[in-house]
Automatic annotation (TrEMBL):
Any Pfam family: Methyltransf_25
Organism from which the protein derives: Streptomyces yunnanensis
Keyword terms, alphabetized: Methyltransferase, Transferase
Signal peptide: none
Single GO MF descriptor: methyltransferase activity
Name of this protein: Class I SAM-dependent methyltransferase
Domain Methyltransferase: 46-142
Length: 258
């Protein structure tokens, strides 16, 4: 899928993205705490190269790190900056493709690419290009943190949908209004790529307003992604599972090699 359509997917989702969480502020803090424990140093220079509306970036800024956020979606990156400012945090953001990061070599202690963002890249060539850029902007022995869906399990079952999530709209807590979110997955013939339809049902004057957004992912298995990271110059690659990290997705943890 062309990068313009991925950017459009997240541009259209940016205003409503927080509604997929039961409590976005709680998720910001929980994810920031989990990633901070893996970074293992104070006031690290962190690049979140798929920052979205700021869930991980703001969480890490709350932990005292010096965070820069980039995202393919200009609208999402702009919202991340606004949300950080609303919390009196410093977060520089820019619209950028993770395959072409607009930073000099060796600028960051840690690069984060979370929330299943890397699998929007649909070929080994594109994934390698993104990983090589992440390696380039890291200082020697810098840390890489990538989270994806648990694709080894998903490739066995190839689910057709996700269960509906029903959350109260926090801005409308007194009215009891809720939002419903679910996904339909349409697997390609190769068994690895899938088209995702993201459904969001929002209350509107006693009825439901339905928003549908579409994008494509590559269900990239853990061994394959670790191998691509090693080819891009990373060492000590290993997967850390949610039950040990407290992060909601599996995390590939690696170090910038020599």
């Amino acid at each position: 899928m062309p990068e313009t359509s991925v950017a459009q997917f997240y541009d259209e989702l940016a205003d409503d993205y927080h509604l997929i969480y039961a409590d976005w502020d709680t998720s910001i803090r929980r994810q920031g705490d989990a990633l901070d424990a893996l970074i293992g140093q104070d006031r690290a220079a962190v690049l979140d190269c798929s920052c979205g509306i700021g869930t991980q970036a703001i969480g890490l800024a709350l932990r005292g790190h010096r965070v820069t956020g980039t995202d393919l979606s200009p609208r999402a990156a702009a919202r991340a900056a606004r949300e950080a400012a609303r919390r009196s945090l410093s977060l520089r953001t820019a619209a950028a493709d993770m395959r072409h990061l607009p930073f000099p070599d060796g600028q960051f202690d840690t690069v984060v690419c979370a929330d299943n963002s890397l699998p929007h890249l649909l070929t080994e060539q594109d994934v390698h290009a993104a990983l090589a850029e992440m390696r380039r902007v890291l200082r020697p022995d810098g840390h890489l943190l990538i989270s994806t869906r648990p694709y080894d399990d998903l490739l066995r079952d190839r689910p057709a949908s996700t269960p509906p999530q029903v959350h109260r709209i926090t801005d409308c807590a007194d009215s009891g209004e809720r939002t419903v979110t679910f996904q339909l997955w349409h697997w390609h013939d190769d068994g690895e790529h899938y088209d995702l339809e993201h459904f969001q049902l929002l209350p509107a004057g006693g009825e439901w307003r339905v928003k549908v957004r579409r994008t494509t992912y590559w269900a990239l298995g853990q061994d394959r992604l670790a191998s691509l990271a090693a080819e891009a110059g990373f060492a000590d690659t290993r997967w850390r599972m949610p039950q040990e990290t407290g992060f909601f997705q599996p995390l590939l943890v690696a170090r910038a090699g020599e």
